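HOLO CASE FILE
Compound: 4'-deoxy-4'-aminopyridoxal-5'-phosphate
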Amino acid sequence: MPRIAYVNGRYLPRDQGAVSIEDRGYQFADGIYEVIWVRGGRIIDLEGHMERLERSLDELSIKRPFARSVFAVILAQCLRRNRLADGYLYIQVSRGVAPRNHVYPDHGRASVVVTASRARPYDPKVMEKGVRVITIPDIRWQRCDIKAIALLPNVMGKQRAKEAGAFEAWQINALGEVTEGSVSNAWIITHEGEIITHPANNSILSGITRRAVLALVREQGLKLAERPFTLEEALVADEAFLTGTTNFIVPIVKIDKTPVGNGKPGPVTLDLHQAYLTYMDKQNEGC
Ligand code: PMP
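Model generated. Tokens follow.
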């Protein structure tokens, strides 16, 4: 696969792409990003990602660098130039280059980088056996709804998960509630069959996969509550799973040392996973 990146108006070999040391993304983590899945050569949920990207920019008063239609052309070019069929696109927009000063520059121009990467080889064990999550305190700021490139607490959380031999770290707030994972949204299914996930407020990132799964849950007429759930509730749930662009839906079979349900991927989770794959494939047929 060729490795071509879009860097501020130019398509370059990825290892030659560079931004200034005075870029505010580098200096202050003053920027936002998106990760978008590509399946069978088609971009999944482009509109949702573009909407969220624009919202993140607007919340930080970073001027939108271009119209959605221009972004769509750049993304398509990145797919084509990298001959990418299955993988993901990464978009990063920072406030741009300016002498280091906390206040926003008056006439800044956003820096835009897009890369395209192949999907990691699919590990069937993840769906067959499920995964374990550990729990960690949620030490993040109060604007987790912005998809900011400032990700240190998430980076530290994911590293702790790795060191514990777990797939993900669920973040627990001061009230004992599970907000979300370090790179994914968190869900449980109660013994009564209610599917619960944290509401999309400032405490979590409103996942694009989460939105799609919510729609599937509603379509199937399953019981649903968008409300915070506590770690205690999670430990007695029948099923648990996580969602995210790069992992779709992953069954969770252990939280810290406690097995979830019977310790195997739950039937509702597996059904939803199938429904999500179908949902993605339908986007391909439609175009
Ligand atoms: N929460 C966090 C903190 C994340 O980093 C991500 C993935 N970027 C998600 C949730 C899932 O969002 P999406 O479904 O849009 O990938």
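CASE NOTES: The first helix runs from residue 24 to 28. The pocket of 4'-deoxy-4'-aminopyridoxal-5'-phosphate is lined by residues 35, 154, 180, 183-185, 205, 207-210, 243-245 (CB under 6 Å).
CLOSED: yes
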